[in-house]
Amino acid sequence: MTNTTEQATTGRDRMKMPTSFILALSVLVILVIVFSSVVAERITGRYPPLITAALKIELEAATAHLQFEETIIEDRHDEISSIRSHLDRSAWYARAMLSGSEDPDGVVVPLVDPQTRAEVKTVLASVIEFRAIAEEQWAARSEGGTELDPRFCRVFNDLLVHVSQVSASLDRSMQRDIHRFRLLQALLLFLSIAFSALAWMFLNRNRRRHESTLKLVQHSEKKFRTMYDNAPLSYQSLDADGRFLDVNSTWCSVLGYEREEIIGTRFGDLLHPDWRPHFEEQFPAFKARGYVHDVQFRIRHKEGRYLDISFEGCIGYGSDGKFQQTYCVFQDITTRMRVTGELRASEEKFRTFANQSTEGISVADLAGRYTYVNPAFCDMVGWDAKELLEMTVFDVTADKQDKATFDKTKGNQEGVPVLVTLVRKNGSTFIAEVTGKVLSTEGAGSVMGTVRDVTEKIRDVDALREAKEFSENLINTADALIVTLDLEARITSFNDYAETLTGRKRAEVLGRNWFELFIPERDRQEIPAVFSDVLKNMPEVSANRNPILVAPEGERMMQWRNSVLRDAHGEITGVLAIGTDLSDQIELENQLRQAQKMEAIGLLAGGVAHDFNNMLGVILGHNELALQDMNPADPLYDDLMEIGKAADRSAELTRQLLAFARKQTVDPKVLDLNDTLESTLNMLRRLIGEDINLAWLPGANIAPIRIDPSQVDQMLANLCVNARDAIAGVGHITIETREVTFDEEYCADHAGFMPGSYAQLTVSDDGRGMEAAVLDRLYEPYFTTKALGQGTGLGLATVYGIIKQNSGFINAYSEVGKGTSFKIYLPTVDSELHESETEITSTQEPHGEECILLVEDEPSILQMTTRILESLGYRVLATSSASEAIEILESNRDDIQLLLTDVIMPEMSGQDLIARLRRIRPEIMCLYMSGYTANVIAHHGVLDEGVNFIQKPFSRNDLAHALRRVLQ
């Protein structure tokens, strides 16, 4: 610029020029400078954020693709959130390019060019599809790794192609603006030279005007230098020897060097060793020709890696017409080269697949000229590939002038097959099914066709007719609602199952609008949108779920599978809908979920009760020991009695929890249900009060049931108390019994029911009833609708646990304001079964003097039980280890008469321990103790015959009687 200024200020000083012309020229220069600044700011402010956004779309998608390959193939299940995050950011940058947004890298200005916007929308769709496929395979993954879905490569390659097209479009737009900017620079240079020349001519005439002009030129140079340094493209200048004269800031940021360390070095020294000879050969040609276009090199980054770059440049000449310096701009095309390589590999894979395919495949341009044919297609038509590549698609059709089919294929985006008569090289013809699809490429297009010989299928008219009749019979005998609708949603076919399900005849509904006849009024604004979406988007298959109206005045929930119907020309004529009735399935699923919820709550309740029993055992035991040694007149005696009562009440709560969890210890007997119930009626009448009438309606000839009698009392007491609380004032409670039998067909339609004979116990009241929300939680522990302090919420939970423990089931029926009825079903047994046993009824506390081996892994219970046994007169050998217990028995083989052991212990179970001990001393007796019954003691909560067991927590008296019952 300095040389240019000096040249502009030399010339003819003495020329006369009007002052107004000089002023006008000055204004023009200023306008050009301002406009040039605006253009430069537009280039630097508009394109870098857009190009950065395009690169980040590709980067985020590529990162997600790589991570997902590792996640699926290597079975790494900890990166799905990161994959989603990368895909969300990729979609965010695509939306930012469409609508604009502010990003840490700059303000993204929305795209204006329609073609570029369309490409960005395609990129966004590919990202969304990529995530959908990832989510689908993530849900279907398996342990040990899963094979990657082949759609990933297709969607990812499409995404890269479209991102490349977006980048290319942005690059073209930026190059166009840069070209304009260069023209402005040239104009500014020209005007600056002209203005400087005029200023030099008028230097002697007006010194002050000359100085003003010189300052303006200097300002222009500074402005140009600023724009040069801040330009978004990489600029460099070389001298005649290929050494750097200048580089701008963008050049330095791309390659990582500082400007000072580059100036004066040779350009060739930065190139890849393989490219240096090419530069040394081409640089003289560049200087001779004066320009270069799209010259590619590999240049070294300061970090050591190499970048692929594309150069554009020209030669700058001095006033004498000789070489002065080069002016070059380059862009990083590393990503584009990589994507191009991947596309080339993808194309090679396609050619390999097509060449090995047994179906004919051909590709033609939009004029119909063949550009590719596979061997199968050549064999099909009789021409070789070289001959076909000189022909058009019309040369192999029977009617060479008919272009309608080809034009329809060009407009087809869905790949719908059409029938075409093709001519072989020998003149014979055949009917082919051609599935064509338009393939779009940058700046061009082509049509790919898949060809199948269907001559035999088309000629076999009778077989087609029979197939049609068969399909009609199949539709009418199908166990599904099958209906077809035209484009106006009018019913065009209606199968027999549809008539049966809806209660409407075919003649009654044909030609009428489906939505008006069968869609509930509340859904008539939403459901038709699904129908419109099927027609608009033309999916091959879609699915939805909605209720339909059936006679008389009912609804059924249907699962639909929809597909479009087309005529022979591929035009959509309507929709085929196949509906499956899900109403019964949904009801069964709801019942199953309720059963699973109750089972889970039962497991939790059982675990809590087991741990609580251990703690209560310690409290009760030590409390009894303290009371035994204390004078009743002692002030603390009453306090200890209250502690004992509270512990007893807590033990009762744990027994109720164990009943709900079906883990409490029971003593089942074969009994007559009616006799058992009659013995409790007086107690129940006192329990419910005189204002409520208790009606007893026993059934006749009811077979016996097997259950613990105390459990019957528990169930009736809880149900009657709940019924009493539901009745405001005077009311009625009815207890009924009868025998019922359920077959397999009935049980298949009623979840939870098992085939067999049952005694039915019904407890009904005419109280206030319950809402559906209450019924859903009826048997949950601690759930109650009573006021605080009026109920524990364990009554119905206990009833539920007792029934399940005895292999029965229960149903509750209730309506608000109409009362509630509980129906309990207990399995009956052979009436000849009889069970009796003698209970030790003595109320005195029995003592003993035998030697007892005590094994308990809980230290506090071990200590407490030892003290109780010693206070009862027994000799005790106590240990917390099963292996130590074996050693103790070996040392005291003849002294130990009984093993008192916990059921579940760390080393081995109580059952395993007694088995080991009986190998040493076969006659040793055993008494088990536990907070719950395990499978080694009980099956489904009922004790095995011959097994002695005491439930924790137990009292001193309970333990004393249990020991004497075993030892005697």
Summarize the structure.
This protein is an alpha+beta fold and 968 residues long. The protein contains 31 helices and 31 strands.
Mean pLDDT comes to 76
- Share of helix among residues? 40-55%
State Rg.
47 Å
Could you name the ranges where pLDDT drops below 50 across 5 or more consecutive residues? 1-17, 834-842, 933-943
Descriptive tags:
five-stranded antiparallel beta sheet, 31 helices, single chain, disordered N terminus, alpha+beta, 22% strand, 968 residues
Description:
This protein is α+β, with helices and mostly antiparallel strands. Helix content is 49%, strand content 22%. The chain has a five-stranded antiparallel β-sheet, with helices on both faces. Strands 9-8-12-11-10 form a five-stranded antiparallel β-sheet. Strands 14-13-17-16-15 form a five-stranded antiparallel β-sheet. Helix 2 packs parallel to helix 6, helix 20 packs antiparallel against helix 21 and helix 29 packs parallel to helix 30. The chain is elongated.
SSE topology sketch:
Layout: H1 2-8, H2 19-73, H3 80-99, E1 101-103, E2 106-108, H4 114-139, H5 151-201, H6 207-230, E3 234-238, E4 244-247, H7 249-255, H8 259-262, H9 276-289, E5 291-300, E6 306-317, E7 323-332, H10 334-356, E8 360-365, E9 370-373, H11 375-381, H12 385-388, H13 404-410, E10 417-423, E11 429-441, E12 444-453, H14 455-459, H15 461-477, E13 481-486, E14 491-494, H16 496-502, H17 506-509, H18 514-518, H19 527-537, E15 542-550, E16 554-566, E17 572-581, H20 583-628, H21 635-661, E18 669-671, H22 673-678, H23 681-688, E19 692-697, E20 705-707, H24 709-726, E21 731-742, H25 744-748, E22 756-765, H26 772-776, H27 795-805, E23 809-815, E24 819-827, E25 851-855, H28 859-871, E26 875-879, H29 882-891, E27 896-902, H30 910-920, E28 925-930, E29 938-939, E30 942-943, E31 949-951, H31 956-967
Parallel strand pairs: 19-21, 25-26, 25-27, 27-28, 28-31
Antiparallel strand pairs: 1-2, 3-4, 3-7, 5-6, 6-7, 8-9, 8-12, 10-11, 11-12, 13-14, 13-17, 15-16, 16-17, 18-20, 21-22, 22-24, 23-24, 29-30
Helix pairs in contact: 1-5, 2-3, 2-5, 2-6, 3-4, 4-5, 5-6, 5-10, 20-21, 20-28, 21-27, 24-27, 29-30
